[in-house]
Each structure stands twice: as C-alpha cells, then as structure tokens.
C-alpha cells in the first residue's frame, strides 16, 4: 500500500469517527446554550484539550516545523510568542469572561454599554478576524493536499478546499459547539500522539543528545552555527532597523493577540465554572508548551535528516518538513514500511488539524453573527432562542460557503500573512476593549466602539500599505507599489493606537454606568450570577 | 426606614457587595497578583525578543556543546510560563476561591433582601 492510500484511509477513519460524534452531539444539542457553549458541560481537562485542538493550527504544526527546518532558531523564536500569550488569557481574561459573559466576546463588552453599537463593532471584528484566519487555513489545506498526496492540479486543490469546507460546515451546523469541541479533542490527542512518536524516534536516532542533533542540523543546513542563532528569518542583517522593529511588532501581536481571538474566547464558556475555565487554560498551556517543544525537535530533526535542499524542493516555505521527516525517520528506525506508515499518519494528522481549526473559526463567526448582529442588533433582543440558533446554523453555512469560494480564488495568492494579521487585529481592537471592560470603571460605549474600530482599522490599513501587500517580490500584488509603511507587522503601531482610541473615546464621552460596573466587577471576580451549566 | 439608612444600603445588591471590605480585599488580592505578574512576563518576553534582534553575539554564545544562550533563553520562556501559571493556580485556589464563593453567596442573600 502506498503512503497516499494509507493516509487517505486514516483520514477517512478520522472523518468517519468525527461525523459519528457530530451526529451524537446533535442529539444532545437542544437549546442555544448547547449550540453556542456545548451546554457548558465540558470538564476543565476536556476543554484544555479542545483549546489545544483549536489553537494548534496547521500553520503551527507544519509552518513552525518548516520554518525551523529552513531558518533554524527563528522558527523557535516565533513559536514562543504563541505560548507566552496564554498567560494573558489565564491571568486577565479566561475566568472573568466565563463569569460575566454568555456566548460571545460581545456579551462582556455590551454588559455595561449601549448594546447595539458595541455588539455591531464586536460582531464586525469577530467576523473579520475569523474570516482572515479561516482563509489562510483553507488555502493552506489546498496546498497541503498537493504536497502530501501528490495531487498537483488546480482542480484537486479546489476540490480539497470544497471538501474541507463541507466537513467544517457539517461539524458546526449539525454538531454545534459540542460536535466542534469533540473534533478538537480528538485532533489534539492525535496531533500530540503523532508529534510525540516522531520526536521520540528522532531523539533516539541522536542518542537523546540535543547538542548532537543541533550540531548535525547546523552542519546540514550549510549555514553553520548561524543556524542555531536568531537572524536568518526575522531581522536579518540586510533588513536593518526595520527588520528588528518588525520582529518586536510581530512578537507583540502574538503575545497580545491570543486573548482577543474570538474562537479562543468562546471556548471559556464551555465549562461549568470559572475554576474549570482556569483549569482548562492550565491544561492548554501544558499541551501547547509541550507541543512547541516537540516542534523544536521536529524542525531541527528535519534539517539534520532530510536537509534543506530536499525540503525546499518539495515546498519553498518548508511546509512539508514534518511529513518528510516522518518518512525519513521511519525508514531509518523502522524500515521502509515504517516510513510509509509514519508519513501516512502525519499526513492524516495534518488534515485533522486543519479541520478542527476551521470548524472552531466557523463556529465563532456564526455565533457572533447570530447572537450579536441578528438577535441583538437587527431584532433588538426580541428573537427567540430557536430563531437565534436557526440563524446561527444558516450563517455557519453561508460563512462556510463564502470561505470556500474565497479560498478557491485566493489559491494562487500568498495569504500566509493573514494569520499574523488576525493576531494583530485581535490584539489591537479586541484586547483593549476586553481589558478596559473588565478593569476600567470609567470605560463606556464610545470607548469600546473607538477601541475596536480604531484597532481593527489601524491594523488592516497598515497591512494594506505594507510590503506584504505591494512593493516586494513576495507581496500579494507584485505589480504595484503603494507600500509606505515599512513593517510587515502592524502591531507595534496598531496595538498602542487601539488602546489610545479606547481611552480617548471614553474620556470624550460623559456616559458612565456605575451600577452596571459594580455588577460586572462583582460578577467577574466572585462568579455570582454566572451562567450555569445545563443538564438534560 | 430613614433616608440615611436607605443611602447606607442603597444601590443594587452588586453595589452593596462591591462596597464591602471583603470584596475590596478580594479585588486587592487578585490585582496584587495578576498585574505585577503580567508586567513581569511581558517585560521578560520583550527582553528576549529585543536581545534576539540586537544582541546576536551574546545570544550566539555556546554554553554546552551546540546549546547556546539563545536556546537556553528560549527554553527559559517555557519554564517561566509554566511557573507563573502554576503559581497563579496555587494563589487562586488558596487565596481567591474561598473568598469568591463566600461573596457570591452574599450577593444572593443581598438579592433576596432587596
């Protein structure tokens, strides 16, 4: 059996199992709390796994391993921001949101504000961030199938995007948060299992001596010890000061963006209490931390055992480094059959990874559309629960369909920057609004709306006028040059700007609701009046 | 009921609990941990990123075999993240949760009284 056939069989087994779970979940999804928040009945450990499954995208798994394999240390540097970011979520956001919100990020923002403008802003921001992120994943899926299964035609890539889109729509429309969460839990277990297996084999190959592995990787890379130091990918000597500022800008967006990503925030509502939300973030930090340590070994292992030439030949961005390493280490340690089996496992895991992440994104954006925009803005809070959930299902279908079409059109474009942009928008618009809402007594509607639109607008505009969109060889539009902002990452400007807008909007408006601030402060810290888990 | 008494117990149950010494203490305990911890880990992370950009020579210094300062510094970010998470969980479990539960019960009693 070829690795392609085996990978497809394993992938179909994953799809079959997750669809069965989805159908089971749909039988236990009766009301809005079930659809949006899985009945708030997941345990801290389960939600911790789901957080890992939601967060560790194909960009993390294949992208970071590939970046380490090609650029050495800088790939590792990139991964660290994704981990440290979880402390913001743990200390400042997760428990307080669980105690004071219901289904979406906007629930917390709208708590003591005028609901319609705030929910509109939060809905716009949620859908924008989720679609950016979703699009990057969909295009990635199309490219991945070509690399892993050898289907190189445009048709095969398009068909993959349709398949991925169709599955994610089914998971969300049929299974709601329950189905999506279980898909993420299964994926997290498979991804950690697969990555651990390959890592252990690589370490065994090098006698469990990290220094030997690093030395071989540096030698094979052709770059010597520079491969083990920062500076080959980010802030290279040729880039000068702009490169160094870009590195800081990226670091800020990664560290501050996570706790403002809507698909991450809604995960805190799936557990019964704030203590469980805390426990789930602790588990998430453990899983994500271990995962990035594994990718460190995978990346340097691929550099040492596969070699940068072979990796670049398969994919210039290094996205196939992890599967190539799986095949190579399997052959070296377990023979040809072992290589085939390991490659198939890692390829199937990579697909499961994409599915779990896109499902989470679709759920976050459709929840926000139905709960924030439809129920509270269009219907002014008069929609019944049934109507709301029906609209959520329809919007999941529409958002899924739109992202399939956009994904197919964007196939030939370099859209990898969209993930960094999603983090930058989340850090610049969402995070200031959330933190001010939870911690600043004086904060008000004008402040919340200014923070979200200001941060979102600044991040998006700066990227439009940056070298990733025009004026460089790797840009989205190579033929034009309207890049006057020198950095690829807007965070260093847009994040302070978002916080500034939130402050300025607040002090320029006299509105202030002391009673509601007392309520959100007491509720968020004590858990009084928090939404309860449902029992059917 | 006199006007003074009304003022004394005035406002919503949440406002009354917010004014209690117990709640003020919970808030202080919470903020006294999370604010300094946030400043600390952000500064520590930014120091790491800044050194990666500006102090290449220092970061490239080899310590044991091919393991250099940059790698150790990166791994220490993992250690600090795990440690702060663990310390917070311990602090919250011991110092915050019992107080929070008591105050939540008080809110409910205030709600009934109002």
TrEMBL record, chain A:
<feature type="transmembrane region" description="Helical">
    <location>
        <begin position="47"/>
        <end position="70"/>
    </location>
</feature>
<feature type="transmembrane region" description="Helical">
    <location>
        <begin position="281"/>
        <end position="306"/>
    </location>
</feature>
<feature type="transmembrane region" description="Helical">
    <location>
        <begin position="341"/>
        <end position="370"/>
    </location>
</feature>
<dbReference type="InterPro" id="IPR050277">
    <property type="entry name" value="Sodium:Solute_Symporter"/>
</dbReference>
<keyword id="KW-0769">Symport</keyword>
<keyword id="KW-0812">Transmembrane</keyword>
<keyword id="KW-1003">Cell membrane</keyword>
<feature type="transmembrane region" description="Helical">
    <location>
        <begin position="188"/>
        <end position="208"/>
    </location>
</feature>
<dbReference type="InterPro" id="IPR001734">
    <property type="entry name" value="Na/solute_symporter"/>
</dbReference>
<feature type="transmembrane region" description="Helical">
    <location>
        <begin position="247"/>
        <end position="269"/>
    </location>
</feature>
<feature type="transmembrane region" description="Helical">
    <location>
        <begin position="416"/>
        <end position="439"/>
    </location>
</feature>
<feature type="transmembrane region" description="Helical">
    <location>
        <begin position="118"/>
        <end position="149"/>
    </location>
</feature>
<feature type="transmembrane region" description="Helical">
    <location>
        <begin position="76"/>
        <end position="97"/>
    </location>
</feature>
<dbReference type="GO" id="GO:0015293">
    <property type="term" value="F:symporter activity"/>
</dbReference>
<feature type="transmembrane region" description="Helical">
    <location>
        <begin position="6"/>
        <end position="26"/>
    </location>
</feature>
<dbReference type="InterPro" id="IPR038377">
    <property type="entry name" value="Na/Glc_symporter_sf"/>
</dbReference>
<keyword id="KW-1133">Transmembrane helix</keyword>
<feature type="transmembrane region" description="Helical">
    <location>
        <begin position="490"/>
        <end position="508"/>
    </location>
</feature>
<keyword id="KW-0813">Transport</keyword>
<dbReference type="GO" id="GO:0005886">
    <property type="term" value="C:plasma membrane"/>
</dbReference>
<dbReference type="Pfam" id="PF00474">
    <property type="entry name" value="SSF"/>
</dbReference>
<protein>
    <submittedName>
        <fullName>SSS sodium solute transporter superfamily</fullName>
    </submittedName>
</protein>
UniProtKB/TrEMBL annotation, chain B:
<keyword id="KW-0472">Membrane</keyword>
<keyword id="KW-0812">Transmembrane</keyword>
<dbReference type="Pfam" id="PF04341">
    <property type="entry name" value="DUF485"/>
</dbReference>
<keyword id="KW-1133">Transmembrane helix</keyword>
<feature type="transmembrane region" description="Helical">
    <location>
        <begin position="32"/>
        <end position="51"/>
    </location>
</feature>
<dbReference type="InterPro" id="IPR007436">
    <property type="entry name" value="DUF485"/>
</dbReference>
<feature type="transmembrane region" description="Helical">
    <location>
        <begin position="63"/>
        <end position="89"/>
    </location>
</feature>
<protein>
    <recommendedName>
        <fullName>Integral membrane protein</fullName>
    </recommendedName>
</protein>
């Amino acid at each position: 059996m070829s690795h392609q056939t085996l990978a497809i069989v394993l992938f179909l087994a994953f799809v079959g199992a997750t669809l069965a779970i989805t159908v089971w979940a749909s039988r236990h999804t009766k009301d809005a709390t079930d659809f949006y928040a899985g009945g708030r009945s997941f345990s801290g450990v389960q939600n911790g796994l789901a957080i890992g499954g939601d967060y560790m995208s194909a960009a993390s798994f294949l992208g970071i391993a590939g970046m380490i394999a090609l650029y050495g240390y800088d790939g590792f540097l990139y991964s660290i921001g994704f981990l440290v970011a979880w402390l913001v979520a743990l200390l400042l956001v997760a428990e307080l949101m669980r105690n004071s919100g219901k289904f979406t990020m906007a629930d917390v923002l709208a708590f003591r504000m005028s609901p319609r403008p705030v929910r509109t802003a939060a809905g716009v921001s949620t859908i924008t961030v989720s679609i950016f992120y979703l699009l990057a994943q969909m295009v990635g899926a199309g490219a991945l199938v070509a690399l892993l299964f050898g289907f190189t035609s445009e048709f095969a890539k398009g068909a993959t995007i349709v398949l991925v889109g169709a599955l994610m729509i089914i998971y969300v429309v049929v299974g709601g948060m329950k189905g999506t969460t279980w898909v993420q839990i299964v994926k997290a277990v498979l991804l950690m299992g697969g990555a651990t297996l390959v890592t252990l084999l690589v370490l065994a190959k090098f006698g469990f001596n990290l220094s030997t592995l690093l030395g071989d990787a540096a030698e094979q890379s052709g770059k010597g010890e520079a491969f083990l130091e920062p500076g080959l990918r980010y802030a290279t000597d040729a880039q000068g000061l702009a490169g160094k500022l870009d590195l800081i800008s990226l670091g800020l967006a990664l560290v501050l963006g996570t706790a403002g990503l809507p698909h991450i925030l809604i995960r805190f509502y799936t557990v019964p209490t704030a203590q469980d939300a805390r426990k789930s973030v602790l588990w998430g930090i453990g899983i994500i931390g271990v995962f990035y340590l594994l990718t460190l070994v995978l990346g340097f292992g691929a550099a040492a055992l596969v070699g940068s030439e072979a990796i670049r030949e398969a994919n210039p961005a290094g996205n196939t480094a992890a599967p190539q390493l799986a095949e190579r280490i399997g052959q070296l340690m377990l023979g040809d059959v072992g290589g085939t089996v390991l490659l198939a496992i890692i390829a199937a895991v990579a697909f499961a990874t994409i599915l779990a992440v896109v499902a989470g994104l679709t759920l976050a954006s459709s929840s926000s559309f139905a709960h924030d925009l439809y129920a509270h803005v269009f219907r002014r809070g008069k929609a019944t629960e049934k109507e709301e959930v029906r609209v959520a299902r329809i919007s999941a279908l529409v958002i899924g369909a739109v992202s399939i079409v956009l994904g197919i059109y964007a196939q030939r474009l370099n859209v990898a920057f969209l993930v960094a942009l999603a983090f930058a928008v989340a850090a610049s618009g969402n995070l200031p609004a959330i933190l001010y809402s939870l911690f600043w007594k004086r904060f008000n509607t004008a402040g919340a709306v200014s923070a979200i639109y200001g941060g979102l607008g600044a991040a998006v505009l700066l990227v439009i006028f940056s070298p990733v969109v025009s004026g460089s060889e790797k840009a989205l539009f190579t033929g034009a040059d309207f890049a006057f902002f020198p950095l690829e990452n807007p965070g260093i400007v847009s994040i302070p700007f978002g916080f500034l807008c939130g402050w300025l909007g607040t002090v320029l408006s006299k509105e202030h609701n002391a009673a509601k601030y007392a309520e959100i402060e007491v509720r968020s810290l004590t858990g009084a009046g928090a939404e309860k888990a449902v029992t059917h | 009921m006199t006007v003074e008494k009304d003022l004394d117990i005035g406002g919503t149950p949440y406002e009354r609990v917010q004014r209690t010494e117990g709640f003020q203490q919970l808030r202080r305990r919470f903020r006294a941990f999370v604010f300094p911890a946030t400043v600390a880990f952000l500064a520590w992370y930014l120091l790491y990123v800044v050194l990666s950009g500006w102090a290449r020579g220092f970061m490239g210094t080899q310590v044991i075999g091919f393991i250099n300062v940059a790698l150790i510094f990166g791994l220490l970010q993992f250690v600090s993240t795990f440690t702060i998470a663990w310390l917070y969980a311990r602090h919250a479990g011991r110092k915050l949760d019992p107080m929070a539960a008591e105050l939540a019960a008080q809110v409910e009693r205030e709600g009934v009284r109002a």
